[in-house]
Amino acid sequence: MVLHEQARHRAPRCPSDEDAERHGPDLTKRGVGLKVLAGEGASIDTTTANGRLIFAIFAGLAEFERELIVERTRAGLASARARGRQGGRPFKMT
Q1: At a CB cut-off of 8 Å and minimum separation 6, what does 35 contact?
Q2: 46 within 8 A of 36, measured Cβ to Cβ
Q3: How far apart are CA 32 and CA 12, in angstroms?
Q4: Distance (Å, rounded) from C-alpha 84 to C-alpha 12?
Q5: How far apart are CA 52 and CA 35, in angstroms?
Q6: Can you tell me whether residue 25 is helix, strand or coil?
Q7: How far apart are alpha carbons 68 and 88 in whole angstroms?
Q8: If you write DSSP's letter for every residue of 29-88 in order, what string do you get?
Q9: Is 17 helix (H, G, I), strand (E, B) or coil?
Q10: pLDDT digit string (tens) for 25-35?
């Protein structure tokens, strides 16, 4: 699979990280690789050992980033609840 340029300015991703984790190994078994031709991800070519290493590192960093976002969101919601804030849209009489 060849991409002209990586669209995002972060770790290279499929439509979602879950898709990459789910379909990546299957595509590799079928002999399908990923090669980015231009942009920040141009060093990625999963048909080589170096490219697979870089892709794995970026995938790990993306997973770490997702987990941090979840932790911060949960901590923020717990803090708001402790201060008596209720989530959601305010009730409105119609």
Answers
A1: 1, 2, 3, 44, 45, 46, 47, 51
A2: no
A3: 16
A4: 40
A5: 10
A6: helix
A7: 23
A8: HTT---EEEESTTTT-BTTSHHHHHHHHHHHHHHHHHHHHHHHHHHHHHHHHHHTTPPPS
A9: helix
A10: 666 677 777 77
**Residues forming a β-bridge with 13:** none
pTM above 0.85, yes or no: no
The residue among 64, 50, 49 whose CA lies nearest residue 17 is: 64
pLDDT by residue (tens digit) across 4-54? Answer: 555 554 444 445 555 555 666 666 677 777 776 666 666 677 788 888 888
- The residue length of the chain stands at 94
User: Contact at 8 Å (CB) between 11 and 61?
Assistant: yes
Contact 51, 45 (CB under 8 A): yes
Instruction: Give Cβ neighbours of residue 13 (< 8 Å, ≥ 6 apart).
Output: 20, 62
